[in-house]
Amino acid sequence: MIPMADTNLSDFGHDVWWVILIKTVLIFVILVLLTLFNIWWERRVVARMQHRIGPNVHGPFGLLQSLADGVKLALKEDLTPKAADKIVFVIAPVLATVPAFVTFAVIPFGPKVNFFGQETPLQLTDMPVAVLFVMAIASIGIYGIVLGGWSSGSTYSLLGGLRSSAQMISYEVAMGLALVAVFLYAGSMSTSEIVAAQGDLWFGLILAPSFVIYCIAMVGETNRAPFDLPEAEGELVGGFHTEYSSLKFALFFLAEYINMATVSALATTLFLGGWHAPFWIDHLWAGANEGYVPVIWFFGKVLFFIFVFIWLRGSLPRLRYDQFMAFGWKRLIPVALVWIVAVATIRSISLEGGLDRRWLLIGIGILAAIFLVLFFVGESEDEPEAVEVAPHPGGFPVPPMPSGGAVRGAAQPLTFTSSSTVSGGEA
């Protein structure tokens, strides 16, 4: 194995056609296998958290359970609602799935290696605006969800699609703002150059508020618990894919899990050093960041984020929709904007040599603590005055209604006055 140096933009665009083909096929196969593993892992972890066993029959430790479920799902009858727009109904799952695969084209899995006699980076391609490319392609997946809910011809599916699209667009704003600080420190939007800029210190440590904002936003972006509001069974049945079945439903299911891997891989690339060895292992082992070994570090970090997704699903209850949207617009986005101004100021002073780096890190830590506290500070709400409503003659007493209409939060305790004896006819 031949050790290679870190990659840069000049290393891309020179691969022969068969190397590009092999890389493309490998990315597709890895994502499909990773999805099958993640489904199995989620069921096993949640089962352990709930003191159950989980899948353990099909294959070793039940590893083939996801494959068996996929085959069963593909063999089910494919139904199309009579009121559906058939062309859009079929295209929507494809629009949701294809962008999830395409985004991995610019994710670096490792440095330059000897690949069947060819020196090439362990990355399909890269570009000066690779992170913006990922955000743009991921946004196309929203069209699949909106069109899937609209084309079904069902009110529940339409409401689920609208709710999901509003949720994803709202949290994409916070996610994009969280990445601005990374661009300021790396001086580039190229994924390979951002990884190279984290050779000594990860951005997840020096840009902790951005990291926290991104982690919250990526859970909301992927519609996962506790933010899985579009699929709230008690409210909207199954959400935007209520009317889907068989392979078309499987594509939506596949897109959800690949999107989990996508945001996890992006978090790894932008905040946790990408394929670089964790815990400064490379200072003890010179070959930790050479050859194909960094692929292990990369997928280890990705699986850590996947575990966090699973942990949240098994631990937290679902939020209310108005709380979730208010948190995104009134908390995450303002805090992200203030943090960007602070980072830009500190970065400008640092580049001009005005302050010592130690004081900058201390200031960043204090700002991080303040921002984390602001996440959990609630708004003060004035209690509306109650208005007595006269009951109907012979009816039950009516509780007082607030003067401004219905309010958020728990209902006020009801108090009933003593009622006179009600006379009725005898049977």
In short:
The protein has 13 helices and four strands.
Side-by-side strand order of the widest sheet: 1-2
- How would you sum up the global shape? globular
Largest sheet: 2 strands, antiparallel
> Any low-confidence stretches, pLDDT <50, length ≥5?
1-5
CA radius of gyration is 26 Å
Total beta strands: 4
The termini sit apart by 95 Å
Which structural category do the helix and sheet elements fall into? Answer: mainly alpha
Helix/strand order, N-terminal first: HHHEEHHHHHHHHHHEE
Binned, the helix content reads: 55-70%
Task: State the domain count.
Answer: 1
Indicate the topology.
Elements: H1 17-49, H2 65-74, H3 86-102, E1 110-115, E2 118-122, H4 130-151, H5 155-186, H6 191-196, H7 203-206, H8 208-221, H9 233-236, H10 246-271, H11 294-315, H12 321-351, H13 357-375, E3 386-387, E4 401-402
Antiparallel strand pairs: 1-2, 3-4
What does this 3D model show about the protein?
- This protein is mainly α and 427 residues long.
- It has one domain (9-375).
- The chain has 13 helices and four strands.
- It has helices at residues 17-49, 65-74, 86-102, 130-151, 155-186, 191-196, 203-206, 208-221, 233-236, 246-271, 294-315, 321-351, 357-375; strands at 110-115, 118-122, 386-387, 401-402.
- A two-stranded antiparallel ribbon has the order 1-2. A two-stranded antiparallel ribbon has the order 3-4.
- Strand 1 (110-115) and strand 2 (118-122) form a beta hairpin.
- Helix 10 crosses helix 11.
- It is globular and about 85 Å long.
- 35% of the residues are buried.
- The model is unreliable at 1-5 (pLDDT under 50).
